[in-house]
Design a protein that fits this description.
Elements: H1 2-27, H2 35-57, H3 63-77, H4 80-92, H5 96-122
Helix pairs in contact: 1-2, 1-3, 2-3, 2-4, 4-5
């Protein structure tokens, strides 16, 4: 139960942070290009790298902090950070086929899934 609360609380803060970034770009009339999503994805990737690095090097970075910051906050902020980290792990393992397969399938199947959902609603 404690783990669920830590993930949920982290996800709450991650989600409202993502929403805050998108509000800034709407307020500043910068919505002609998806800058907020780009910034969120890049920042989320930086944060997950930072947090994983801390988890590997710092004894104070407990499982609770892992659940709150990496699973919860980064997961609520952007799942792209997890996607990027998983791709990096595949590259570090020299699993190039896995890397290209996972990347291509995620991108292509993701686009097709959005198109499928939109198409289904229009029927």
């Amino acid at each position: 139960m404690k783990a669920l609360l830590l993930v949920g609380l982290g996800g709450f803060f991650g989600s409202i942070s993502r929403y805050g970034i998108s509000l800034f770009f709407v307020k500043e009339n910068l919505v002609k290009f998806p800058y907020s999503t780009l910034l969120t994805n890049v920042l989320g990737c930086f944060l997950i790298g930072l947090f994983i690095g801390l988890a590997q090097r710092q004894t104070w970075f407990s499982q609770e902090w892992f659940l709150f910051l990496i699973v919860g906050f980064c997961g609520g902020f952007t799942t792209f950070s997890t996607f990027a980290n998983e791709n990096l792990m595949l590259l570090q393992q020299s699993n190039y086929i896995g890397f290209f397969s996972y990347s291509a399938m995620s991108f292509i199947l993701g686009l097709l899934a959005v198109l499928g959902g939109l198409t289904l609603i229009k029927i």
